[in-house]
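#lab-general

N.A. 3:47 PM
ok so I finally got the sequence cleaned up, no stray characters, all 294 residues accounted for. can someone with queue access submit it? mine expired

B.Y. 3:52 PM
send it over

N.A. 3:53 PM
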Amino acid sequence: MAAQKKSGLGKGLGALMSSNDIPQENNVLEVDINKITPNKSQPRNVFNDASLNELAQSIEEMGIIQPLTVKRVDDYYEIVAGERRWRAARIAGLKKVPVIVKEYDDLKSLEAALIENIQREDLNPMEEAFTYIRFSNEFGMNQEEIAKKVGKSRSAVANAMRLANLDKRVQVFVKEYKLTNGHARALLALDDGNIQFEMAEKIIDEDLSVRVTEDLVKVTVENMNKPQAVEEKKVIRNPEVARECMRIAKELRSIFGTKVNVKNNKNKGKIEIEYNSIDDLDRIVGLIKEKMQN
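B.Y. 4:20 PM
back already:
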């Protein structure tokens, strides 16, 4: 007898998605698409246009195979799960969509929306982090309770929630998938938001791996803890200047074909140009002389 395949859902998710909740054909209603509104509890707030257009083409050919789950709110239906299908159906020009009406409160709606996105791996790390924070703030759940609810370990939930401590600009990079979850967790070791942001730009510009990022962050933290660095940390860093330094460093990297760092402190600083060999050094010096002659 073959072993029964275990569900990837936790106890809480399994209960919510139990066989009793599986819709039968006569539970499906056809509803005017204009009488459906997005879910105010939707954890996901980034929808890829290209992916939506692909789904819209599929819906034009095959229709909506899996009905949306909704709840009645006054004269309208609020989406509990299936907002991506609803958006694609609008693009496809559908007048009506199939739905299943559920009697869900706000907590149940948030659970269902989170479950659908986690199962489909649709949430970016920041969306997941702030959804867990909502569970905590709005419904008074601790990390252990949240972990049971979503079928993950407590440490996984805790690590996800910590991403909310990232600099706001770095959070945008994570939402845009310019930084991975691993990159984001590594940057948490940096207390200074401006340094986090500078490091994030360096990761993106130089396409650094998570392992290299972790090593770089470790060295940065060690240097910041040195007596001289502690004094430098008292200086208020200007994000505009830091951004300009990053731009100049990027421009110099394209000229010299090697790593370049521009460091600024109290309107003075230094430019570091890396070279891999004596021949490489001669090449860089030659480029500098050529630029000076021009």
